[in-house]
User: Fold Glycerol-3-phosphate 1-O-acyltransferase from Rhodococcus zopfii.
Amino acid sequence: MSVKGQSGSEVSGSGTSSRPTVVVAAATTSIERDLITRWMRSGGLPAEYDTDATPAVLDLDSKVLAAELVPRSDDPLIVPVKVVWLPAARDGARRVRFSDILALTNPRNPNRLIQQWLVGRSSDRHRIVVAEPAPLSELQASLQADDGDPAPDLLARHITRRAVVALERSERAVIGDRYKVPRLVAEQIMDSVSFRRHLEAIAEEHNISREEVDSRARAVLRELVAVQSRLVTDLFTQAMRPLHSSAWSVHADESGLRSLRELNRRRPLVFLPSHRSYADAFVLGDILANNEFPRNHLMGGANLTFWPIGPIARRTGTVFIRRSFGDDAVYKAALEEYFAYLLTKRFNLEWYFEGGRTRTGKLRAPRFGLLNYVANAIRTGRVEDAMLVPVSITYEGLAEVAAVAAEQTGATKKPEGLTWLARYARNQRRSAGNVYVRFGEPLSMHGLLAGSGDPELSEPARDETEHSERTRKALQKVAFEVAVGINGATPITVNCLVTLALLGVRDRALTLDEVRAVIAPVRRYIEARNLPQGELSVLDMEGGLARVLGSLTDAGVVTTYSGGEEPVYSIQRGQHLVAAFYRNSGVHWFVNRAILELSILCAHMNPGENPVVVAWEEAKNLRDLLKFEFFFPDRDTFEAQMRAELALLVAEWSDELPRSEQVALSALIETGFFMVHRTLRSFFDAQLVVAERLALRDPSLKLDRTAFLDECVAVGTQMLLQGRLYGPESVSSELFATALQLAGNRGLLETGGEEVRERRRAFAADLLAVGKRVQLAESLDVSNRKADR
Assistant:
């Protein structure tokens, strides 16, 4: 319904004058009660709700309603009314500032004395809103449909909740959708018929009294439910803004936001951003708030519950979920019910589905736990659908990357706390360039699950084993599509290109012209594929590239030597993992090109065989080697993508071309650049370290994963010093862990005899061969050779 304020604007509704009216007033002070009374006497109540008799006015309190409203038999129309208090208007907006609370009161909920002052001197600071009314019989019927014949106290609580929610909706017409907050959540969940039945089943299954199960459920809900406060939301946003506003210029996809806002009128949105920084939530939250989105319910980990961030964040919509809750059936049931409740009420969710910040700069493998709760709400019919929104957040510079890089070589992660927060805030004072926030195409979770063969939403499974397997694969498909959506929205930044150039020449320093010579053909490739870009146009401006290199020098990533004829640039000693982080933010765009290069070189190095067959087999082998590092589509789609890459080289390509590998190789050289040694070498080198360490181990002994990864870091450092690895960015516990996952997928972690040892040796030999082809690509790279002229 529309809202009637003191200006007397029209109110629409569905009431009828033949029915008695009861006004339920959400008033907490005598000032508010007096305002509502005077408003009614002056004809404030809409005409269609008015009757000849003076309407009864009751406090919106379940005990009062149980005693004075529920017993009535004349089926009155119930009209919720409340007073809304507003902050002072500044620059066309009414948002609370820190200066507002110097009077020790909340401008959105002022104390009685401030209310009295505002009524007399600032009449624009309050509105009276009327919510959509409902007959008592309708409210009884809605509860009976779920719960049979309700007890008076249960019906009174139901009326109270419905009135509160209706008033919230009407209030948002005054204050804006960004202040949409849930009310009485725990109470609604505990009164839910489905949840009560679930708790009954848990009590019976685990032989626990129903009272104890209820008590534990209430405790879990108190722990889980975010108690959102509009005051804290405004102040927290202002307090946290310096953590990103001083460091970055934010570039958001405004067109994507407009379509999302329209979609949000029909469906709940689940925002799933890439996770590169602690600032991600603040950057995204600010953008959504400025575009009048309600604040997301952000699912967070217990590592950020420290004072004061934890208590404040909880009041701005953060839901802190235990890292592990094992077999706690009550906790799991409450969490699942909470997810279903939020989605049913169309509250938007947000979490970082990688499970933590990226350590390498590229997208990590997804975690499925929270996605499964959304899926269950859809499978059980509680929610018709939820729209998954892939979000790419890409930074040109990040102060925290150095600490993340150090952790990859054995440094201990510093625990979050006040000292950590102060240090983090101090580091954010330095300008770090741009941050790009892009939104991928929203994905229907119902559609993805059904299309992927989820047994609850498509053809039923034959047995429990098939049911479990199809459920798992359907959820994996959902996560894969989200990851592809994030990568597809991620732009290539100037720092990505510059670090790509400098990491590709080992520790050699490049002049400004040499850096430009490496970047130029890559930019032509980017344009040919119409890939998303950051502000790459800065490289076309006079002095633009020098400024980018200067900012990387200021950040300690690049070192500049200016003592000779002209400045030369190289990666700062000890900063290769940091540089790789920036390169890897866009590396996924070049993976297929790099695979194509290695496939053509493989065919060239095996002249006695059918070159086309050799190249396609090599492409499939490389895809399999990299499947835990990057998100590849199914084999048919992958082949189509590879043919598209090939068409960029040879427009008239045919598999029957004579000397096809020579034609393709010549075309590669003519492009002026090779990509594989700049993009994939560190991944293959890390795999080689793991493969060789495995080949030297006794296959009859079970592997200690932690000790093995520590060994890879130590031996990898030795191999680097010996020149067997190309660069320090290969010595990374994160890359070693993924390589070990690949080895496990190939059955190389199984205990056994000589057969296992031979397969491990063959794995290492394959990677040595790949390494030789990478070296050949480097030698053929024209842009690399410019330095030798």
Observations:
- The chain has 33 helices and 16 strands.
- The chain has five domains: 21-175, 210-447, 494-585, 589-671, 679-788.
